[in-house]
Amino acid sequence: MNRKLLDPFEPEYPEAIEACLDDEYAVKCAFSHNGELLATSRSDGFCYIWDMDTLNVMRKLSHSDTALAGLSWSRSGRYILTYDEAGVCVVWDLQTQTVRVRVEFGSAIACARMHPRNSAQFVVCPVREAPSLVTIGKGESAEPMIQQILISAESVDQKTKAASSTCCCFGKKGIYAFFGTSKGAIHAVHTATLEVTCSVKLSSSAVNTVARNPRGSDIVTSSSDRILRVCEVYLPGQETRRKVVAAGTPPSITVITKIQDIVNRVHW
User: Fold this and answer.
1) Residues 50-77: what's their mean pLDDT?
2) Using CA atoms, how far apart are residues 132 and 139, in angstroms rounded to an integer?
3) CA triplet 42, 77, 31: central angle to 5 degrees?
4) Residues 6+ apart with CB under 8 A from 2
5) Which of 43, 80, 36 has its CA nearest to residue 65?
6) 24-41: buried (b, 16+ CB within 10 Å) or exposed (e) per residue?
7) Which residue of 122, 176, 219, 262 has the fewest CB atoms within a 10 Å radius of its CB?
8) How far is CA 5 from the centre of its chain?
């Protein structure tokens, strides 16, 4: 087709749908690390695991009666983390079809992510509590260790007096974890010491989503002001796209690109 006849402001959609999964309304979905499996979290509390080769359901995980808020895969694809609006996090073992650990928090879960290299750790961001790093015990009867992370005093909840975060993600190797707040700030926390290494305020709007580059140290954020921000991250001991950051280099998070839909002003 002649490109000059196309409307430049019309969004591009696929001309044909190759396949459709016979599933009800899915709240969130995520592919496994190798892309062979797809997990969908549903509003009825179930999590379906789909085989992308046969497009059939491999596992049906019953989390609870509460609607699921999201999910996160482990690097190996054996474990998957599901969390709901009631503050319950469950790590499933897909090989044995059993619950590996179940952790309850006092408020709804805004975001939770599994460690990219250690399947026994994950971070949780409750709505009215400080974010926590959860370490699963080695034995079946061992209790999980929950460590709260004090990110900043700027986003303190008036009821619980705890600094909460709206979203989170791990770095490339899990050395650092990034947390976004309702005040528009990003905090980089070292996962070993749980200390804030670097903080930067991106805007006055809340940070809704933060994600990392799987092949580098860059991160991208989506805020309520409808702007995507690509940030270049320099942190001690972490590899970047250009070099390995030395121990004496000051940590920094710098915005290098901003993407915004000026015409339609839609949310990303």
Assistant:
1) 90
2) 21
3) 50
4) none
5) 43
6) eebbebeebeeeebbbbb
7) 262
8) 40
Check: CB of residue 213 under 8 Å from CB of residue 233.
no
Residue ranges with strand state E in the chain: 26-31, 37-42, 46-51, 56-62, 68-73, 79-84, 88-93, 98-104, 109-114, 121-126, 132-135, 145-148, 167-170, 176-180, 185-190, 196-201, 207-212, 219-223, 227-234, 252-260
CA atoms within 13 A on the CB side of 106: 9
Residue 156: its pLDDT value, please? 44
Taking the CA atoms of residue 260, residue 257, residue 123 and residue 72 in that order, the dihedral angle to the nearest 10 degrees is 60
Angle at 79 between CA 76 and CA 81, to 5 degrees: 125
Kindly calculate the radius of gyration of the chain based on its CA atoms and give it in whole angstroms.
20
CA dist 227 and 200 (Å) reads 16
What is this structure's pTM? Answer: 0.84
**Cβ(68)–Cβ(83) under 8 Å?**
yes
Check if the beta carbon of residue 103 is closer than 8 Å to that of residue 89: yes
Residue-wise pLDDT for 174-187, tens only, equals 999 999 998 889 99
pLDDT at 244 over 80: no
pLDDT digit string, tens, across residues 153-179 = 554 444 433 467 899 999 888 999 999
